């Protein structure tokens, strides 16, 4: 391991694995004295031109003094980082703290000179940009606020690295040198640049796995059977368009397996190998990975089992696998993976355990479970749905759902994304990526293991402390279509992939069964839709009758979607019949011609062949019309309208009408589409975070620093009431004063101070906020009533020392509510709202939003609880001041967002009256701020 530095212990927290622009990986770490030979070797591989750009003069080799200077750092005023692949340097960066004259300095000087050197073979991979992010983070940690760099004008690549970073900068030119100075404080632009680079790099790393030009299957048996032989057969039978190789140490030179060239090792293959599928036993995987790394393989799919899913020893084996692969610049899908599928005709890749690849389609599917993957592939196949890509990640030790989301976001072949997740390794990042993806295409998620509170075996991830209901609410806020079962996921996916988004919740129902129509009507009401009265075509309706009725419904401006119900119909002679499903499918298909831009779903009972016929139905892309979300043309609102016809579909586009065997399933899928379409419309105008003139942000920061300095517990502490009220007051949140009443006389004195009428309340933990237990006495008008109430409380519940009674002035009557904020280490800062009282707690009727909340978020938060009607004049009661409530929510959000040391806030109760509101109780917890990985430089999860 590296030796300690001159002044500080080796800063291991600066080590990081990163994804570069081309999808490969590198490791960034501090340079130490042990790196002298590596540095010399690295410098020898740099071109003379690059050396000239670095030192402004010919500099063919490093002197011993240079090597010592560039490998010995104090990790405070002089820091050097290296990017490595395979243990060797590919780039370096260093900074030296300087004073205002440009001379070497120590703190408190806050400026440093920075310089880079990138090996020519690795230029253009985004190495320098990534190193800049990391060296800037290190500099900020060491108290440096500004970088200066001197660059030759001809070194345009390095100038671009600095100018494209997004920092506030100043440029000057003197003595033939460009001098750049820039502040290191992250800006909105620098964060946007960083996230855009992250998206491109991570998407490219997944693209490497899904679009290889050549594949080697390592572990192919000599006889039929076995995992390796099955994967090889699946690749061959799918018609993989690239080069295919079989690898097994037992093969003889020049042999073939099932017509595929066979080799003893990937090192023996003369041509480049882009993807390796590893199926050998776990104990032989390290050698296979080492061979792949030496051969320059770009990515690995590790199907081999025996890792974290098998216990502690397997977890350590899994860590070693990831570290080994990343050291060679490779990313891993797996281990214990099901594999990957890409149905693109340019690739036709089935590097998975699925013997029958799905048909070509426009759905992307990700699953962390092999068994669920099999079920989903089978279910989609039965329903006639095709896939664009499939990723079965297994233990998701490296490539995760976040990476696949990055790929799908810009993939023109994916219109709908389906994800089965058993764990979310980085919920904060997932919600950010999901929100961005959902603005372009629907994302349907099922979360397994959601009630266990632990990560599934094999998933080395941080587990959130938030309840599942809270996580679901946050995902929905991000635009995710959250469903409970894989069946619901397929149902929703089929509708979203084959139909336009609805422009509203109004649903027309038509069919040949009055009873089935009424069931559909009831299901619509239960799912929050607005159904029109069902139209009964009678049991004698023919396909022509269905066609006419559907065309009429689609042309009706009073509906936004249509559900068709169909049962076997009765002929003129009274006999029941069930003509070929193709006949009815043809009629329904014909009715949709004319570009209605409304979704259609079919509920069928015992109509053989109808679902299959509808799945195969096509209609020609119609001419100009307005889609559900605006814009011309009849392309789906979530599809690029400019996408040109392909060779497979030169004129017609596959628009499948989904069919469901039960009304509830069709309605639930449609309801999810309605909610998603509404979210899309609202996301186009996301609202704003208000700036309030009376907020004292700097004063609050100073007070927080003082309070934390006084607290000796590194985990933080809950503030005393007076301190909490003072801090909240700096954000315009006024808490009504409550005076302690340890005895009746003290209670009377408190009431005189506050003024009658007053309330007498217990603050004991078991009675606090439980008015239903009798621990609160209200509207006490005079001393006599107060003393009597005091006596009743102590007689009923115990001594004053146990009850901790307080006296508080009465406030205007209203609705009691609760506002809370908490920072979850995995999900981030969350704001919660609900009505006070046991009923709401028992029902779990609490709404949640990620902080910071906008004005639109605050409004939707108030309205999203089931008991919200109580705030808006339910049953003749007076509406309360919800604008004041929304302002309070935004102020709490600002406090937590501005000061990450505020890890928990609870306002309870908050009485919302007809005019204004009153905060009657408050608590605040402070702690050292948790690490915000989403604001730091780009890194892969550590192993």
Overall pLDDT level: 89
- Give the spatial strand order of the biggest sheet: 1-2-3-4-5-6-8-7
Number of strands: 43
* Proportion of residues in helical segments: 25-40%
Largest sheet: 8 strands, mixed
Judging from the principal axes of the Cα atoms, what is the shape?
Answer: flat
Strand content: 15-25%
Q: Which stretches of 5+ consecutive residues score pLDDT under 50? A: 1-6, 575-579, 617-654
Please tell me how large the radius of gyration is.
33 Å
The helix tally amounts to: 27
Secondary-structure class? alpha/beta
Straight-line N-to-C gap: 16 Å
Please provide a written account of the structure.
With 943 residues, the chain is of the alpha/beta class. Helix content is 34%, strand content 22%. The protein contains 27 helices and 43 strands. The strands form eight sheets. An eight-stranded mixed beta sheet has the order 1-2-3-4-5-6-8-7, sandwiched between helices. Strands 11-12-10-9-13-14-15 form a seven-stranded mixed beta sheet, with helices on both faces. Strands 17-16-19-18-20-21-22 form a seven-stranded mixed beta sheet, with helices on both faces. The longest helix is centred in the N-terminal third of the chain and has 23 residues, at 188-210. The radius of gyration is 33 Å and the shape is flat.
